[in-house]
Design a protein that fits this description.
alpha/beta, Rossmann fold, seven-stranded parallel β-sheet, two-stranded parallel sheet, 13 helices, 11 strands, globular
Length: about 350
């Protein structure tokens, strides 16, 4: 197949392109960095996702059968790519997020009412609010994910894509970790391990919270299946690891793979330093089932969770972040909370 990947040189795009090429597909990548090459087998298109009209002649010349858009952000972008794909007879695979669910809105405080029941399926209730994140959060996110626009809303993206064509596909992602992770999700644990901390504190509500995760190599494999399978036409899929671990269980797995000899201490939230609080409503879990993609497309994870964690730890060791990002460290306050 001829497959165009928009945003195919990023954290998730690069392993996706590698997967597609490995299976013999003719792949082109649209991105902004003219110096970035992924080998002679991949056609490079220089262009800006926010100025897609400037690249349409090049895309028409490549004549993709499938367009995988990794960086859709708003309804306007979705309408544009869906209409263009219709004119050239291509199917769109839109990469979305589990932040479309009402449950996620409850976590963030943008949705009111009772907690959403778990587990989530692809047919669970979506958010009703106009945005998943407030404008100030989107502004901060844009510093890391430069493709975001101010009207970021994956619910609107999905509606536009599916309204435009019955053959299009939606893939909803979890929190993705792995080599290249721009958020350095494991850094909070790994830095404390490296600093020789004897204990890591978690507030009780955060320790018990369950949220969806996925290793970048496994997620790329799942997207490749959705892009190249006729059974995926008109379908929406989850991707996430199962079982869904609590935050405590997840951090324990990271610490075990890092050979840490310390202990985790779960304390009532009132006894925990504020810099360790989880933002949002931890009473609402976000546990997703992946039966549909497993049953319909035969999805199985190429990488075990333990192998995925080890590879991520190795990458983090070689690529420490320039800043702490959303992680916070105050060892004096943590020591005070641990004192008898």
């Amino acid at each position: 197949m001829r497959i165009l990947v928009i945003g195919g040189n990023g954290f998730l795009g690069r392993p996706l392109v590698t997967e597609l090429v490995r299976h013999g597909h003719n792949v082109a990548v649209l991105h902004r960095n003219p110096a970035d090459s992924q080998g002679a087998q991949v056609e490079q298109m220089r262009g800006d996702r926010n100025r897609l009209a400037d690249s349409m002649a090049d895309i028409r010349h490549f004549a993709p059968q499938i367009i995988v858009d990794m960086i859709l952000s708003s309804a306007n972008q979705a309408d544009e790519i869906a209409e263009f794909a219709r004119t050239i007879g291509a199917r769109v695979v839109a990469i979305s997020s589990m932040d479309v669910y009402r449950a996620f809105g409850i976590v963030l405080g943008s949705e009111s009412g009772p907690l959403e029941p778990m587990p989530l399926t692809e047919d669970s209730a979506l958010r009703t609010g106009p945005r998943s994140y407030p404008p100030e959060v989107v502004k901060t996110m844009k510093q890391i994910f430069t493709w975001l626009d101010e009207n970021y809303d994956k619910v609107a993206v999905e509606q536009a894509i599916m309204r435009a064509g019955t053959a299009n596909t939606i893939v909803r992602l979890p929190m993705v970790y792995g080599p290249g992770d721009p958020l350095h999700r494991m850094y909070g644990v790994l830095r404390r391990v490296a600093d020789g901390r004897a204990a890591i504190i978690l507030p009780d509500d955060h320790a018990a919270w369950r949220g969806p995760r996925g290793y970048v190599g496994n997620v790329a494999h799942a997207i490749a299946l959705a892009a190249t399978s006729d059974a995926a036409r008109g379908r929406t899929y989850h991707i996430c690891e199962e079982p869904c671990l609590t935050e405590l269980e997840w951090q324990q797995q990271i610490a075990a793979q890092a050979n840490w000899g310390g202990k985790f201490v779960v304390l009532p939230k009132a006894a925990v330093p504020p810099h360790l609080f989880m933002p949002g409503n931890a009473a609402q879990h976000v546990v997703a089932k992946c039966d549909r993609i497993r049953n319909e497309l035969g999805y199985r994870e190429p990488f075990s969770t333990s192998a995925a964690i080890r590879q991520t730890i190795a990458w983090e060791g070689e690529n420490p972040p320039a800043t702490a990002g959303f992680h916070r460290f105050d060892y004096a306050a943590e020591d005070a909370a641990l004192a008898p």
